[in-house]
């Protein structure tokens, strides 16, 4: 576990692909419990450690996760996330099968979630049980087989980035569920919660943090030079 920011009210950690944020039926230890143990050991806290989960990332996704360390911060962060006051930026390596994607910068679909399949389906028009999904993106890196997109969510839907990019013919690398040709060797998908920015719920200071790039060399090859310190693919 890598802590990228912490104070008395919040802690932000860099989640690795494969980790779950909160407990589920698998019984695997969730990131929330790992963070609790870290706080307990670092600060020598007796008894149960308070930690509030305010948002989640899909298991195969890496990157920044924000937790609340106090009930005051949890209440305020929940409200901020619900009202879109927390700005999250994602990076995604995609199979660029749709050349038109590079000429657009916004996607709008209506998503229907299938609980049994744990999958969402995107439609170009409103259908029963659907929810409107919107995102903005820009191409920030190009390679021979893959491109790197920077994505900003305008709504928060189940598997939204994965589903919408797949719908326009650009599945995320390694995401077999949404149409990728092959899996990544480590079981991850090439989607990173790269940056989070918000006004601190208590101090009111501006918080802006970035996750480091995954160890996979393709991330560094596709990233802009000022981000990766290397040439683009």
SSE arrangement:
Elements: E1 2-6, E2 10-15, H1 31-43, E3 52-53, E4 62-68, H2 71-82, E5 87-95, E6 106-114, E7 119-123, E8 131-142, E9 146-153, H3 160-167, E10 191-199, E11 206-210, H4 217-222, H5 225-228
Brief sketch in words of this structure:
This protein is of the alpha+beta class and 233 residues long. It is built from 5 helices and 11 strands; from the N terminus they run E-E-H-E-E-H-E-E-E-E-E-H-E-E-H-H. Strands 1, 2, 3, 4, 5, 6, 7, 8, 9, 10 and 11 form an 11-stranded mixed sheet that branches.
Summarize the structure in words.
There is one protein chain. The chain is of the alpha+beta class and 233 residues long. It has 5 helices and 11 strands, in the order ββαββαβββββαββαα. Strands 1, 2, 3, 4, 5, 6, 7, 8, 9, 10 and 11 form an 11-stranded mixed sheet that branches. The relative contact order is 0.18.
Written as H for each helix and E for each strand, in order along the chain, the element string is: EEHEEHEEEEEHEEHH
Strand count: 11
Q: How far apart are the first and last residues' alpha carbons, in Å?
A: 29 Å
> What assembly state would you assign to the polypeptide chains in this entry?
single chain
Q: DSSP strand (E) fraction?
A: 25-35%
Helix-and-strand structural type:
alpha+beta
Shape: globular
- What's the tally of helices? 5
C-alpha-based Rg, rounded: 18 Å
Chain-averaged pLDDT? 92
What can be said about the biggest beta sheet? 11 strands, mixed
The low-confidence runs, each spanning 5 or more residues with pLDDT under 50, are 228-233
Helix share bin: 10-25%
């Amino acid at each position: 576990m890598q802590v990228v920011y912490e104070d008395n009210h919040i802690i932000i950690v860099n989640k690795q692909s494969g980790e779950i944020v909160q407990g589920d039926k698998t019984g695997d230890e969730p990131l929330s419990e790992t963070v609790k143990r870290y706080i307990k050991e670092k600060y020598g806290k007796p008894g149960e450690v308070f930690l509030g989960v305010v948002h989640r990332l899909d298991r195969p996704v890496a990157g920044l996760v924000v937790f609340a360390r106090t009930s005051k911060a949890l209440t305020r962060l929940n409200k901020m996330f619900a009202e879109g006051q927390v700005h999250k930026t994602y990076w995604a390596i995609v199979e660029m099968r749709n050349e038109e994607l590079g000429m657009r910068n916004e996607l709008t679909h209506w998503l229907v979630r299938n609980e049994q399949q744990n999958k969402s389906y995107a439609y170009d028009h409103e259908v029963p049980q659907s929810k409107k999904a919107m995102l903005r993106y820009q191409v920030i890196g190009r390679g021979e087989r893959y491109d790197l997109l920077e994505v900003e969510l305008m709504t928060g839907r189940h598997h939204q980035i994965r589903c919408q990019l797949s719908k326009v013919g650009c599945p995320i690398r390694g995401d077999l569920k949404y149409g990728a040709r092959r899996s990544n060797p480590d079981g991850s998908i090439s989607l990173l919660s790269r940056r989070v920015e918000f006004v601190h719920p208590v101090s009111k200071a501006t918080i802006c943090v970035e996750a480091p790039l995954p160890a996979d060399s393709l991330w560094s090859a596709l990233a802009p030079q000022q981000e990766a310190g290397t040439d683009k693919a």
